[in-house]
Amino acid sequence: MIEVKTSKLSDGEFNRGVFATQDFAKGDLIHEAPVIPYPNEEHEHIEKTLLADYVFEYGANHSALLLGYGMLFNHSYTPNARYDLNFDNHTVDFFAFTDIKAGDEILINYNGEEDCNDPMWFEDKS
């Protein structure tokens, strides 16, 4: 359903992104990424590492590292996917926000809301 390939949007050493290997209709579940949550008080340790750019807010008192493809979705202010925190399953669930064609890179808005244009902590290339 999805695969990791080289992305033109991603800078740095890895240049990875998540791409569709099949068509997705708006609302389709794309991926369920298991999480490793940790208390916000411990985030100061994560901030000293490369992982700081890949962590998601996970409720009011926690942050989380995402497993699976979860940390590899790139940002866009015009995303074709969205994500929901699923506390019951301890996952972050990614859904098609628009129709997505096979071969398209799957993009989310890191701000959490699809239409939020708040500045990012990095240069946005989308």
Automatic annotation (TrEMBL):
Taxonomically, what lineage is the organism? Answer: Bacteria, Bacillati, Bacillota, Bacilli, Bacillales
Give the matching InterPro entries. SET7_MeTrfase, SET_dom, SET_dom_sf
SMART domains attached to this UniProt entry: SET
The identity of this protein, by name, is SET domain-containing protein
Enumerate the SUPFAM superfamilies for this protein: SET domain (SSF82199)
Cited Pfam families: SET
Provenance organism: Paenibacillus filicis
PROSITE patterns with a match to the protein in the record: SET
Signal peptide boundaries: none
Q: Where is the SET domain?
A: 1-111
Q: Cross-referenced CDD domains, in alphabetical order? A: SET_SpSet7-like (cd10540)
